[in-house]
Amino acid sequence: MDKRNYKEMLADTISALNTTEKEVSRLQILVAKYQDKERKIKRLVYDNPNDFGLGGKIRLMYREDNE
C-alpha cells in the first residue's frame, strides 16, 4: 500500500467516524426526549391511579408534543 492510498483510506475512515458520531449524538438526544416522556406518563399514572380520564390526559399530552 502506497502513501497516497493510505491517506485516502485514513480520510475515508475519519469521515465515516464523524458521521457515526453525529448519528450517536442524534440518537442520544432522542433517548433523552423519550425518557422524559416516559417519566411524565409514569408521574401522571402515579398521580391519577383510578382516573377514568387518564387515557384522555395521555392522548392530550401527545397531541401537545406533536404540535
How many domains make up the coordinates?
Answer: 1
**What is the arithmetic mean of pLDDT?**
88
Individual helix count: 2
Residue ranges: pLDDT <50 for 5 or more in a row?
none
Over all CA atoms, what is the radius of gyration?
23 Å
Structural class from helices and strands?
mainly alpha
What characterizes the major β-sheet? none
Secondary structure layout:
Blueprint: H1 3-47, H2 54-66
Characterize the structure shown.
With 67 residues, the chain is an all-alpha fold. The protein has one domain (3-66). It is built from 2 helices and no strands. The chain has helices at 3-47, 54-66. The chain starts with a helix and ends with a helix. The mean pLDDT is 88.
Short description:
The chain is mainly α and 67 residues long. The protein has helices at 3-47, 54-66.
Question: How would you describe this structure in keywords?
Answer:
67 residues, 2 helices, mainly alpha
